[in-house]
Write a structure and sequence with these properties.
867 residues, alpha+beta, seven-stranded antiparallel β-sheet, 23 strands, elongated
């Protein structure tokens, strides 16, 4: 049952079979505990480390590599194990890295469990006793007071000045006043259920007695835990593209292997020789360094993002940001300053401003302290601290005012009177200072009709601007009344002084960030638990809400089917008074349109949506541990602008990873075609052997690929539209470049082999000279290809030969290592190479520059076509 707020209190007590005065008996409580279970959240069963390790083996590329390792070992007669060990080491390293990257809801759920109150005060058999909170059952009567963590969902039986901080669950920025209302509309949203208390929220003021309506996984926080467990981990666009790459490479590898196997048998080659050719092909087809290069590129991006106030919890999330097309942002603290601020003070008399601020700061329970580093700081209720803050800014120090006019009596605020009054010694008289709801306060003042109209008009104008408005008034009396203070005596015959309008204002820098979003083709959307009027007012100031846009509240969302929401999602810019389920529905609706969605949040109620979003962004300062546990990224400054900076970084990282994959695939395709054509044309010996291919893939390919990942972000990248999350990596342009340059690399390498074998007369069976030339040409060709792929349109000179220092270092290191392999005789046998003379070196260098020259010419035509 989820309508406890709607039932009358008598119906609630009857349904829960309890006694509001004496509570449950211990016997009944034990029976209910057996029936409902403990008041705690369930833990999600997690796979063992061994199972998680072997689950990584489902990747097609990994399966091909394992097969290649086994074939290599079997084909060598179980003697030559070096290649097999190297391949299996790559597989194990990749699996370990993947496990480390994995992020799930375990930490979020653990944080939820820690939020539960350890002890609760309940009435059992007519006595108030303290019990462990996990032993609470539906029907238990429990007692609350200021500072208590609420142990379960409950219906209020009676209360006095009870207020609760529900920000973590509803997004409400100020403590919520609770009342023992007998019944509310069944459609009332969670944030407006004033006759209910929510498990894991905190009592800030007053006291209350409640009856437990739900425990454990049936509470509101339990429902969130259930959503966290039921929603699987989101697969990022990068993970999809790498999986797509793996499948394409695996299919190509198996297809070419089958052809080579058939051709080898057709030519009458020995079975073991054909097996070894297949192993060499498998090694050539799989870019073994790709997983490590991608991880390192992402990790470098993470390091750069830390400097920009963003901590990444899941590496693939860095790239996912690059395709974000929608940013669903919470309002409080992210778009706003998370600090109630007085922005308008209006007074009846022209010279009454100081008096109004004095009343606001003295009729006030907030504390003013001074810190050595930060200066004045206010502590207390957000509304009250706002009044003290503005007074301090205008030279009215609360501590000094209290010394001059000490408080000698008070009538605390309560939700029925909607007023708070304090009495202060003011020389020989006593001054009564009152603040509260303007309409109530006005009825307690001596005032003429014209002035009353002015006050009402000003109050309506402020409220129309979504300001929280308080009125202030006073009166002087001769002496402190004897006996108890009565509202009727103290809070009547007042003089109305003025109005103070306050709001949590927008962050100064957010407006520019929102403008940058529009330029980048990203749609900013506000999702908040706050009221619609306030949300729209802030959204208009930030340009999130524009002419023609719509705002919708949670109750209205309940009446929309998911299909209708998806059909109309782009019409809405503001979603107010929403629940955790609503947030998930909103995120999924945007995703159904093909957008990658970034979602910000700080509360427990945000956790499910953070998890289902393509990129969940939790607040580092105000965020709960639950939200941080469910998120992909944590904003250390709680700032919307940081998300936009992260998007820019993500786009740059994706562009670099795309260059890296294009580089590696064109090189690997070249290697495949070299072996394929050597087999089809019935070469007496393969131009390359497996150990050489491993060397190329792991060293002379991986280091330049890593350097490509460190290319600076292009200046124009935030002026481009975001790519679709489901956009294929293998589009016509990408595939065409990979195929063309793969063929070109294969052609010049085979040409080098052919020249060495037949023109220069270095037969393979005598000195391996032709193989050495092919090996060297391929290495140099791929090193120069790395420079060419840095830009699609700019020449290597326009990009700047020395702009990416990492590329120059990678080139120098790879060239140095290759020279060691070629010039150190003890390595010749292992790598199957031999000494080369100057003529052979000249041919290798000349041939290796052909793909670079062709690429530069192609860029000239591409730039001309673009103009």
């Amino acid at each position: 049952m989820n309508n406890w707020h709607h039932l009358s209190l008598a119906e609630v007590i009857e349904n829960l079979e309890t006694d509001r005065e004496n509570g449950l008996s211990r016997f009944v409580a034990e029976k209910k505990l057996e029936q409902h279970g403990k008041n705690e959240l369930q833990a999600k069963a997690r796979d063992s480390m061994v199972k998680r390790f072997f689950l990584q083996m489902k990747d097609p590329m990994i399966l091909v590599l394992i097969g290649a390792a086994i074939l290599s070992f079997v084909a060598s007669g179980f003697h030559d194990w070096i290649e097999s060990v190297i391949i299996l080491a790559i597989v194990i390293l990749n699996s370990v890295i993947s496990i480390i990257q994995e992020s799930n809801a375990e930490k979020a759920l653990e944080a939820l469990r820690k939020m539960s109150a350890p002890l609760a005060k309940v009435i059992r058999d007519g006595e108030i006793v303290r019990i462990e909170a996990n032993l609470l059952v539906p029907g238990d009567i429990f007692v609350l007071e200021a500072g208590d963590l609420i142990p379960a969902d409950g219906r209020i039986i009676e209360c006095a000045n009870l207020r609760a901080d529900e920000a973590a669950m509803t997004g409400e920025s100020v403590p919520v006043t609770k009342q023992a209302i007998d019944s509310l509309s069944e459609e009332t949203g969670l944030g407006d259920r004033k006759n209910m208390v929510i498990s894991s929220t905190v009592v800030t003021n007053g006291r209350g007695t409640c009856v437990v309506t739900a425990t454990g996984m049936n509470t509101e926080v339990g429902r969130i835990a259930d959503m966290l467990m039921s929603e699987g981990d989101t697969v990022t666009p990068l993970q999809k593209k790498l999986s797509e790459t793996a499948k394409v490479l695996s299919l190509i590898c198996l297809g070419v292997c089958a052809v080579m196997f058939g051709v080898g048998l057709f030519y009458g080659r020995e079975l073991m020789e054909v097996f070894m050719s297949a192993v060499a092909l498998a090694v050539a087809a799989i870019p073994e360094g790709l997983p490590a290069v991608v991880v390192i590129t992402l990790a470098l991006g993470v390091t750069r993002m830390v400097k920009r106030n963003a901590i990444i919890r899941r590496l693939p999330a860095v790239e996912t940001l690059g395709c974000a097309g929608v940013i669903c942002s919470d309002k409080t603290g992210t778009l706003t300053q998370n600090k109630m601020t007085v922005v308008n003070v209006w007074t009846v008399g022209e010279n009454d401003r100081a008096l109004a601020l004095t009343i606001g700061t003295l009729c006030n329970d907030a504390n003013l302290v001074y810190e050595e580093e930060n200066g004045p700081k206010t502590l207390g209720d957000p509304t009250e601290t706002a009044l003290v803050d503005i007074a301090v800014k205008e030279g009215l120090d609360k501590n000094e005012l209290e010394k001059a006019m000490p408080r000698i009596g008070e009538l605390p605020f309560d939700s029925e009177r909607k007023l708070m009054s304090t009495l202060h010694q003011n020389g020989d008289t006593v001054r009564v200072m009152v603040k509260g709801a303007p309409d109530v306060l006005l009825s307690r003042c001596n005032i003429d009709k014209e002035t009353a109209k002015r006050i009402v008009a000003q109050n309506e104008e402020m409220a129309g601007d979504a300001l929280r408005v308080l009125g202030v008034a006073y009166k002087d009396i001769g002496a402190m009344p004897s006996g108890d203070l009565e509202s009727e005596e103290i809070e009547n015959g007042l003089t109305f002084v003025g109005l103070a309008g306050m709001i949590d204002p927008p962050r100064v820098e957010v407006k520019d960030a929102v403008d940058e979003c529009y330029v980048a083709g990203i749609r900013p959307v506000m999702i908040t638990g706050d009221h619609k009027l306030t949300a729209v007012a802030i959204a208009k100031q930030l340009d999130i809400f524009k002419d023609g846009d719509l705002a919708i509240i949670g109750e209205e969302l309940n009446m929309l089917s998911q299909e209708d929401l998806e059909a109309n999602i782009e019409r809405y810019s503001v979603f107010a008074r929403v629940s955790p389920e609503h947030k998930m529905r909103i995120v999924k609706a945007w995703q159904s349109k093909g957008f990658a969605v970034a979602m910000t949040g700080d509360g427990v109620n945000d956790a499910p949506a953070l998890k289902v979003a393509d990129i969940g962004c939790a607040m580092g300062i105000t965020g709960t541990d639950v939200a941080k546990g469910a998120a992909d990224m944590i904003l250390t400054d709680d700032n919307f602008s940081t998300i936009v900076h992260a998007v820019e970084e993500g786009r740059g990282i994706y562009a670099n990873i795309k260059k890296t994959i294009q580089f590696l695939l064109s090189c690997n395709l070249g290697e495949i075609l070299i072996l394929f054509f050597a087999t089809v044309l019935n070469f007496t010996q393969m131009p390359l052997v497996a150990v050489q291919l491993l060397w190329i893939n792991l060293v002379t390919d991986s280091l330049p690929a890593l350097a490509l990942g460190m290319e600076p972000v292009e200046k124009e990248i935030m002026k481009q539209k975001p790519r679709k999350a489901n956009e294929s990596l293998f589009n016509r342009d990408f595939t065409g470049k990979v195929a063309f340059y793969g063929i070109l690399i294969a052609a010049v390498t085979l040409a080098s082999y052919f020249i060495g074998e037949y023109v220069l007369g270095h037969p393979v069976d005598m000195d391996d000279g032709a193989i050495t030339m092919a090996f060297t040409t391929l290495v140099l060709c791929e090193l120069t290809r790395a420079y060419a792929v840095r830009s699609d349109t700019k020449s290597i000179f326009q990009v700047g030969l020395f702009k990416n220092k990492s590329m120059n270092i990678a080139f120098a290191v790879c060239l140095g290592l290759q020279l060691i392999v070629l010039l150190v005789p003890p390595l010749h046998t292992f790598f199957r190479v031999s000494h080369m003379d100057l003529q052979m070196w000249g041919i290798c260098v000349g041939l290796s520059l052909i793909p670079l020259a062709v690429s530069e010419v192609a860029k000239v035509f591409r730039r001309a076509r673009a103009k």
